[in-house]
Amino acid sequence: MSKTALDLKRMNEIIEKTIVTIDSGRQEIFEIAEDARKDCERFKKELTSIQQKISLAIFEVDGLEREERRTKAKLMMVSKDFNRYSEEDIRLAYEEANNVRVKHILKKQEEKELICRRTELELNLKRTYEIVQKAEKLVSQVGVAMDFLKGNLSDIFETIEDMHKKQLLGIKIIEAQEEERMRVSREIHDGPAQSMANVVLKAELCERLLAIDINQSRLELRKLKDIVRGSLKDIRKIIYDLRPMSLDDLGLVPTIKRYTDNFTDETGINVELMVINEQQSINSIIEIACFRIIQEALNNISKHSRARDVLIKIEQTMDKISIVIKDNGIGFEMNNLKRNPEKNGFGLIGMKERAELLNGKLDIISAFGEGTKIILTIPLERKDELYE
To answer: What distance in Å separates the CA atoms of residue 304 and residue 309, rounded to the nearest whole number?
Structure first.
């Protein structure tokens, strides 16, 4: 048996042992995540119960406040009119006022304790949710490693040079998929899911108030409608982020126009869109790549650039599409980005990789005080190997 074959066998044995160890660790992490997730559900249920008790306590405190005012007024009236009321009447009025006052104090204390408990539960839920997020991220990262370790390694020495770049891209794609799933899950949990929980609480409150205070119930119903409208807006935004339907219906340029108009409304940053020679339909894969790159560029501009104006120029020829995104922001030093990409530029790196997957090219030109310019070029004739 050749030395290469022995080395390969030994490497496979090492990798198999590593897989067993990692798989065991992943299972433990998964169990931690599951336990934390169960705690989250328990905290949520307890929070719902506590919120209902708080609503009821507030309602009862309000009633006791009114009752206390009534008994105090009665006591004052009885105490002043000695001719009409006896000492026994005064004593009974005093006992009634005192009993209501004690009940009011106890109920207010109960309300205060419930609010403290709710605050404690909210903090526990936040900490536990952070544990779930970290554990899920770690499970995802370990899963990526497992997927590659379990692959066919028989020709690793012969193919490693040719496959190195594709493996890196594969890892990036899997990580991007997991991050996108986690982002969507987090957005649904923090947005529509929380709003739906509020809808249930508001509906229960309205149900209670209908028989007591019709004006207050109308006010709560208006708030309920606002919550539902906000949830619908959040859901539509999540759907749009996953896949803008207007790309299929209207095409790239109208979709970008609509997106930039919304971007200006939300950020106050003026975006000028210039289109040159829009002459033919584009492959949907190229369309979504161009849209996502523009989306990421505008996201970076709103977060970091302090720019007031942005120019997006789209030019299409028979064989390529070119996009230039230029802002008048503070810019950055390219050398800093190259030295520390983890800290400064995963978004820009992702844009470059997206372009390279389509045999395109993305150049970034920037300097402090001179804004940033992004130049994207993608050929419209894709090579067959991209479909393999």
So the answer is: 14
DSSP helix/strand/coil, 379: strand
Tens digit of pLDDT for each residue in 223-252?
Answer: 777 777 777 777 766 666 666 666 777 788
Instruction: Report the C-alpha gap between 215 and 338 in whole angstroms.
Output: 62
Task: Tell me the β-bridge partners of 272.
Answer: 311
Residue 1 half-sphere exposure, CB side, CA atoms within 13 Å? 7
- Give the domains, in start order, of the chain with CATH numbers: 3-241 (1.10.287), 244-387 (3.30.565.10)
Q: Which candidate, 360, 363, 374, 346, places its Cα nearest to that of 285?
A: 360
239 vs 250: CA distance, rounded Å = 17
**Tens digit of each residue's pLDDT (9 = 90 or more) over 308-340:** 999 999 998 888 899 999 999 998 887 766 555
DSSP codes of every residue in 194-223: HHHHHHHHHHHHHHHHHTT-HHHHHHHHHH
CA distance 38 to 35: 5
User: In sequence order, what are the residues at sequence separation of 6 or more whose Cβ sits closer than 8 angstroms to the Cβ of residue 312?
Assistant: 256, 260, 271, 272, 273, 274, 294, 323, 324, 325
